[in-house]
Sequence to fold (420 residues):
Amino acid sequence: MKNELEALIKGLDWLLRAQKLDGGWSAREDEIGSSIQSTYNVIFVLIQIFGIELDKIEKGLNYIELKYIKKQKEIGFWPTDLHLDKPNYCTGLHCCYVLLLAERLGRELTKIKREDLVKSANDIIKHYLKKARSGEIIDWALPLCSLLLSFDFFNQKIRDEFKNIIIDLISDKSWSLKAENHRYAQAILGLLYFPGNYSQDLAHSALESLLERKIIDNRYIYWPHKKNPFIATRWVLWALIKSIKMKIIRGDDYRNIISKSISWIVDRQNQEGFWERSEGPVFEPNYCGYALLDIWKWMEISSMMSKESLTFIMQRIINSSISAQEIMSLKKDHRYLSDINICLRGANRKLRFFILVLIICFSLITIASIHFIGWDSRLLFFLKKYSIEIGIISGLVTIIIATLGIFKLIKSKKMRNRRG
Fold:
């Protein structure tokens, strides 16, 4: 059975290498050009994991900004890949959010003015509000709408109306009983990501209802779906992990459920590093991206790996200085990796060599000073006079370093046991 880190690195390696020359991602491997749906989903996932630190993310954002934001401004609505004459607000919702999120993280817009992007975001939210007012269920759009509403250019009136729509939908027993698992999870995520106060009791009770629908299969847990249980499970996991992070649900029972569900997802990764759809092997970055997002979010709340360490490793893989297989073989005798510092030995070799040179130089300078100045020098007098204090300080430093090492060893062992 693979562990989470192995699946994460292998999946990210595949996903990042699947990027097309134009900066986007395609829905099928034999496609020359990119698909906007695949691209915005992949970029959304990669920003959640890496921020905006990877060059490949910048290329993907440029693809979205150049081809779709510009086209939207020209024709007045959001096009799709196949139909430039038909509006698609789902495309706009995703594109606006990932670009605004990247800007919030420090990226500058290059192909479009911010005011045009803000106008598009407002138009999109008003569009979904109109659909909700007419009685249409927009559960699938709620997570991203809530995330988009977190930007400060939306007025409170629009936010309050949207919040009431989410609360009314989740509170509707007739809808919740017949809602598919992934739709129910999406509505809950819309509530969890909503900017502002709301009743956490409502979110907790909805999550408990969702947990009752789980399927226990030996050491795995997943949620059913009419086509592929992967679709439902990935959304439910996202909602559960977000709830633990917000401390809406607590306790080892919930963590055990998530751990078994993550194991179910991890063990369905194929040899190439991506996840297959139920109808067979399909080049599908969306499936891969959201599986990796669940794995990453679980590793993040479990303190298994820092974002900085992962970014460093993926940069090395992208630059072909080390392969994903080599990363995992560096610690092949361990089932679980609580930290990937072991993977950075090659990178730290120069730093350790530099420190060693400094120590040798300092020692040589000290010996030369004693030799040329003489044993009755002030240096020797100082060492003799304060020898007890120096010994105590050296002992304390040694004890502190040893204690930190023991704590790190214990923590690493606990994390390995948790996976077992």
About this structure: Strands lie at 215-217, 220-222.
